[in-house]
Amino acid sequence: MQDKYNHIELERAAHEHWNARDAYRVTEDDSKKKFYACSMLPYPSGKLHMGHVRNYTINDMLARQLRMKGYNVLMPMGWDAFGLPAENAALKNKVPPAQWTYDNIAYMKKQMQSMGLAIDWSREIATCDPDYYRWNQWLFLKMLDKGIAYRKTQVVNWDPVDQTVLANEQVIDGRGWRTGALVEKREIPGYYLKITDYAQELLEHVQVGNDKATLTGWPDKVRLMQENWIGKSSGVRFAFTHGIQDAQGQLIQDGKMYVFTTRADTIMGVTFCAVAPEHPLAMHAAAGNPALAAFIEECKKGGTTEAELAVKEKEGMPTGLFVTHPLTGAQVEVWVGNYVLMGYGDGAVMGVPAHDERDFAFAKKYDLPIRQVVAASGESFSTEAWADWYGDKQKAVCVNSGALDGLTHAQAVDKVAELLAAKGLGEKKTTWRLRDWGVSRQRYWGTPIPIIHCADCGAQPVPEKDLPVVLPQDLVPDGSGNPLVKSEAFHAGVVCPCCGKPARRETDTMDTFVDSSWYFMRYCDAKNSAQMVGAGTEYWMRGNGMDQYIGGIEHAILHLLYARFWTKVMRDLGLVTFDEPFSQLLTQGMVLNHIYSRRTAKGAKEYFWPKDVEHVFDDAGKIVGARLKAEVDSADGLLPVGTAIDYEGVGTMSKSKNNGIDPQELIEKYGADTARLYTMFTAPPEATLEWNDAAVEGSYRFLRRVYNYGVKLLGGDYAAADAVGASARDLKNVAFGKDAQALRREIHTVLKQVDYDYQRMQYNTVVSGAMKMINALEGFKGTDTPDGQIAAIEGFGILLRCLYPATPHVTHALWSGLGYSQHLGELLDAPWPQVDAAALVQDEIELMLQVNGKLRGSILVAATADKAEIERVALASEAFVKQAAGATPKKVVVVPGRLVNVVV
Ligand code: ANZ
Ligand code: ZN
Q1: What are the helix (H) ranges across 115-155?
Q2: Contact present, 658 and 682 (Cβ < 8 Å)
Q3: Near ion ligand 2, which residues have CB within 5 Å?
Q4: Which residue lies with its CA nearest to atom 5 of ligand 1?
Q5: Under 8 Å between Cβ of 185 and 421
Q6: Which of the chain's termini has less CB crowding within 10 Å, N or C?
Q7: Residue among 23, 25, 15 at smallest CA distance from 120
């Protein structure tokens, strides 16, 4: 063992040791309790960022600690290797996406290895590998067979200049990212998966407060986000009747304009109706009304997602058409409203401006009547500004509503549903926000959809025996659309599976969310060439899926929901037995750093690296600005030291803001252990982490301190190493003196807390526990007595094991260098330290001594002392004798464990 903490040497040696042992390869073993801990798989973007380091270190701490506790732990890794960035890079560098992707994977894998992660690399998968994506295709065909996958037209973004379909993220402010051309919406055929068939089950298992919920190990925040996304909504669906006919003289929609409402109790407050721009009535009216047609075109341009609509100014236009109110018979005017979604409910709403905020805004803008029909007594009504006149749901009742007057919300809804049902015009209905999952992408770098198009037979599934449909690896996108369309090799020799005539392949590929919907199962059966999943998946995922999933909150909705759906489909196809993929979820917080910027002479914003900037403080120590502490080359030429810079506060690390910290530099300078320790210690896993260079230094110094303590512990006499191990084993036979007992009490008390913190994955306080331990060890004076040395050796052994999951390299070096390994085995599998209950027992305790209620000193008594004994010690104490000056005590009050008060 070296005398100085040399992180480079020591981390290299540790890696060699673990590699030689193939230390992280695991197999299914029924004699042990399994634990499957997995991080969301990374996109191979080029290099690791700090968020990765944090994510994988959390995962690694969990895996290493549980392994010491005797679990069979799987920690796998893979690559979310398909997707748009690879195509963009290919376009820019003129190399095939495959090459870019595999180069990145190789580099990032090396980085992960340098971090010392306990990954079983024998199970590594890249989703762009045909051995993986063939199973996407296989399952897709099964879904097609079961009707879970189906084909229908979908709306896509079309760039008229590049003549290509754009992904949503390629549309910026309504324009194509490369051409700047106004993006059009086009309808083309595509494939959908019926996730809506699973809406109820997806909701029940996740919903907070639902007694069928099984995902109780997820953060409530995420559970709520899923619930809202699924969006179950109970209400009434009913029709306004009309006699409007199309050009052929047919009644449009059979003369019924259906609406969905959650507030049927407000039906007497309807003053208009609004339909979506794509609604048949809107289109009918537009045919003879150019102004309306232009308005509808305008509506179609912008985004059509709910989020986009929510922030849009409410706009509309009357159609000149009228429909009949089903209960009053009144004629109600139909408007086209840009806030009405064609894809939700029936694409039409009843407008109740008094009780719906959007309708209110609309009515104010277009001067439509507002009629209050619900009131809670004592509340006044104003049409000046929006107020939720629903008021207290418990107390509110219908007013101005004829037969409904006096009814509560629930009663009124029942009554309205009844009245409408009697007329055959409506009934109660549940509506879901969740839509079917459109999986077709008009992109090259993805899983080919296994379909063959025949001029005679239409779309035909590729026969199972012909899977996988292999994606050509050598194409380079040129910006003019999907290169698969033009690839002769891709279509060569393809014949219709049905009639045998020459045919063409489907050129759409699958949404990359398909790849991430089940990769975690494939890790369990990574080498299975006969099946998608098998015994491995049953072993690692049995029960309620994997035991711990760790990843970013940005995947709280779509990825998790799609993976849950995919799992349930696999279950229904008999491929797995569990219902849910992830029983526990931890969403780690973002890594933040300071953001510094400045306006250039031309008014553009320039960002500066934190390393070039220092804060300017006011007298009270508050940050009031920033200035350069180094010369920086800027758009305005070289800026001198001292140039004033704007401080924008902290934000997520990002390339565009120059505030990222490259983990590679950190690892090279301080070592992987410091990078790991820093990210674990600075904040609890789920909180945001604010970067602080000084604290990185501090982490390094702490590890050096631990190392130096270890070196000193045996006074450089490594021959004594054997004794270390031996004594660490035979503690029962040691008679510990007072000082040694105090040290052991401190160490074991902290260990107890550390144990608990490991259980709840609060790794920042695990690290502070280790810091407390080193403080206690360094402060301990009795190392030169035989019992003292044993207590110190024991204590240090506990410290090393507590710290090991966070900083495996330095602890490994000390553990084996000092000889612990000879008796307790390698640190990898060393037994987790047990709290010694006897060490926690306090022999003597200190009580405050008061005389007439005033603090006068303290006394030491046996921890087991009774009241009489405490009284005796108190009255005999020097402090009391001096204070009482001969007076006789009248009364003695003992507060157990705290104080004794003598009244004289
Ligand atoms: C009248 C009403 C009165 C409404 C009132 C609300 C409050 P959730 O809970 O999200 O399901 N709606 C129905 N279809 C729509 C569509 N295609 N586009 C936009 N809005 C639509 O919301 C259901 C409510 O959203 C429905 O209840 C309807 O407005 C509106 F005081 O009907 B309500
Ligand atoms: Zn055919």
Answers
A1: 130-146
A2: no
A3: 454, 456-457, 496, 498-499
A4: 356
A5: no
A6: C
A7: 25
Tokens of 314: 């409410």
SS3 712: helix
Q: How far does residue 470's CA lie from ligand 2's centre (Å)?
A: 21
- CA of 264 relative to ligand 1 center, distance in Å: 10
Helix %, strand %, coil % of the chain (to 5): 40, 20, 35
Asked if pLDDT for residue 715 goes beyond 70, the answer is: no
- Determine what percent of the chain is predicted with pLDDT higher than 70: 96
Q: Which residue has the tokens 């049905």?
A: 498
CA distance 448 to 451: 8
Strands 316-324 and 272-275, by their bridges, are unpaired
Please state, in angstroms and rounded to a whole number, the distance separating the CA atoms of residues 319 and 417.
Answer: 28
Q: How far apart are CA 754 and CA 677, in angstroms?
A: 15
Its pTM stands at 0.87
Q: Which domains does the chain have, with CATH numbers?
A: 142-194+437-512 (2.170.220), 232-432 (3.90.740.10), 592-652 (2.20.28.290), 672-840 (1.10.730.10), 844-903 (3.10.20.590)
| pLDDT tens readout for residues 154-186 | 888 888 887 788 877 788 888 888 889 988 888
Q: In which residue are the tokens 């506790």 written?
A: 69
Amino acid 873 reads V
- Could you tell me the strand order of the sheet in which 548-552 lies? 72-74, 34-39, 548-552, 585-588
Which tokens hold the place of 64?
Answer: 């290493």
The pLDDT value given to residue 73: 98
**Which residues are bridge partners to 245 per DSSP?**
251
Rounded CA-CA distance 49/665 in Å is 11
Q: What would the mean pLDDT of 399-428 be, rounded to a whole number? A: 95
Q: Ligand 1 site: residues with CB under 6 angstroms?
A: 233, 260-263, 266, 339-341, 344-345, 347, 349-350, 352, 355-356, 431
Alpha helices in 547-662 (DSSP H): 558-572
CA dist 804 and 676 (Å) reads 11
Q: Whose CA is nearest to atom 14 of ligand 1?
A: 345
Number of the ligand closest to the Cα of 312: 1
- Rounded-to-integer distance, Cα 293 and Cα 246, Å: 16
Q: Is 34 one of the annotated binding-site residues?
A: no
State the Cα angle at 775 between 772 and 778, rounded to 5°: 150
User: What is the per-residue pLDDT across 588-629, written as a single tens digit (0 to 9) for each?
Assistant: 999 999 999 999 999 999 999 988 999 999 999 888 889 999
Say if residue 194 is exposed, middle or buried (CB neighbours under 10 Å; 0-12, 13-18, 19+): middle
Cβ(425)–Cβ(416) below 8 Å: no
pLDDT digits (tens, 9 = 90+) for 90-119: 999 999 999 999 999 999 999 999 999 999
Helix (H) or strand (E) holding 427: strand 426-432
Cα dihedral 169/172/178/183 (nearest 10): 100
Residue type, 641: V
